[in-house]
Specification:
single chain, 143 residues, alpha+beta, Aminopeptidase, six-stranded mixed sheet, 6 strands, globular
Length: 143
């Protein structure tokens, strides 16, 4: 991340908040999805997709929450493919919006999510993490 000037997990104590057993629990709960290269079988990306998130207040709408999104920087386009699949799953399940948060100081990533239609909602602070909550409403999208 430092090599590619990516300011996200490397700027917080990420693995203190999300240790290995967190991911093992998400696998067992069916909430962790991986993307593999069709030719090599290599894992090129992963995401945790949740139906609830403590960083957001429950406003009565049905939402999916993207967490722990990671993609191989050597394989362009993986991140957007994963996000598109999350959005399609949300549409298929009658979900109102897809929500996520990212490091507030990561300008590149915030601009990326903005281009994908994820609108800034508010800031969130949790320990040393300061993030921007973002949301994409799906009501106007069609299959």
């Amino acid at each position: 991340m430092d090599k590619n000037n990516i300011n996200q997990w490397n700027k917080t104590n990420y693995f203190d908040s999300y240790p290995r057993d967190y991911f093992e629990n998400k696998v067992e709960a069916g909430q962790l999805y991986i993307m593999k290269d069709k030719l090599t079988g290599k894992v090129v990306g992963a995401v945790v997709l949740l139906e609830e998130d403590k960083r957001w207040t429950n406003d009565g709408s049905k939402n999916y929450y993207i967490h722990n999104l990671v993609s191989d920087t050597e394989v362009p386009g993986v991140g957007i493919k994963i996000i598109n699949l999350c959005e399609q799953m949300a549409l298929d399940n009658g979900v109102d919006a897809v929500r996520l948060d990212c490091q507030a100081s990561n300008i590149k990533l915030n601009e990326y999510y903005e281009r994908l239609g994820y609108i800034y909602v508010s800031e969130v602070q949790e320990g040393c993490y300061i993030g921007n909550r973002r949301e994409k409403k799906l009501g106007n999208l069609c299959c």
